[in-house]
Specification:
The complex is a heterodimer of chains A (109) and B (142).
Chain A (H helix, E strand, L loop, with lengths): L14 H24 L12 H21 L6 H25 L7
Chain B lengths: L2 H30 L5 H28 L12 H24 L3 H22 L16
The chains are: A mainly alpha (109), B mainly alpha (142).
């Protein structure tokens, strides 16, 4: 978008990467970050809860996404295939870590 | 936060895990060349994450954080937001599972209709709370 490229002008092989960079890398990651900042405190001692889970989500999400961005446009030869598997698992681990991190901070009052 | 906010957010988090798990499976299918109904599951993956996760989580946070009413129920009546939660989740499953299980197009259409109705119900609750800073503070005003 910033480069003035319309979604329909992105080559078909790059479209999944393009969409995921926006939806996972931008929108979802922004939600992760803002909720980590603004959600009710977990406790007085640890207001933001289990911080290592937040860092795990951050590193796994970005590693998985970047791995995908590199591997997906290539032809799925055996090694690249396993790169995609690793990328998917990293993003899944990121999601699980984020949910485990933020779930206790979603509290009714 | 209000009960319906936490309900929307926690449901959305469940969809996040489901959608990412399905996405990981789809990447494995793509990478390793497994024979699998890739296209149909892609629609479910998109439905779970775009509507079930992103839209629902945003609705939950908005219901919690938008300005409160000065009188009456702080966040407006519960019925529209409860209807939004119910309709959105019925819609996600009908519209998401329909193509995977080969349900008739009318069922998928009903799912889309339920999602649209959910958004409308959410707007009914949220729109009166969107106001300029300092307005709506007069006694007796909503």
């Amino acid at each position: 978008m910033v480069l003035g490229i319309k979604p329909t002008e992105v080559p078909i092989g790059l479209r999944p990467t393009y969409l995921h960079l926006f939806i996972v890398g931008w929108i979802s990651q922004l939600i992760f970050g803002v909720s980590h900042w603004m959600f009710p405190r977990a406790s007085k001692e640890h207001p933001r809860g289990t911080e290592w889970l937040g860092w795990l989500a951050f590193w796994c999400l970005n590693a998985g996404l970047l791995l995908r961005a590199v591997a997906e446009p290539m032809n799925p030869a055996a090694t690249e295939g396993w790169t995609l598997v690793t990328s998917g698992l990293l993003q899944l681990i990121a999601g699980i870590a984020y949910v485990a991190h933020i779930w206790p901070r979603i509290r009714e009052r | 936060m209000p009960p319906f906010s936490s309900r929307l957010q926690r449901t959305a988090l469940c969809y996040l895990i489901l959608g990412l798990a399905l996405g990981a499976l789809l990447l494995a299918v793509k990478g390793l060349g497994w024979p699998f109904p890739y296209g149909r599951l892609m629609l479910l993956h998109a439905e779970l994450l775009l509507v079930g996760w992103l839209l629902q989580f945003t609705m939950g946070v908005a219901h919690w954080m938008l300005p409160k009413h000065a009188s009456g129920p702080e966040r407006g009546p519960d019925a529209p937001i409860a209807a939004a939660w119910l309709l959105l989740n019925v819609g996600v499953w009908l519209a998401g599972l329909g193509p995977v299980l080969g349900w008739p197009a009318a069922v998928v259409g009903a799912g889309r209709g339920a999602e649209a109705a959910a958004v409308l119900a959410f707007v009914v609750n949220a729109a009166p709370r969107i106001k300029a800073f300092g307005t709506g503070r007069e006694a007796g005003s909503p």
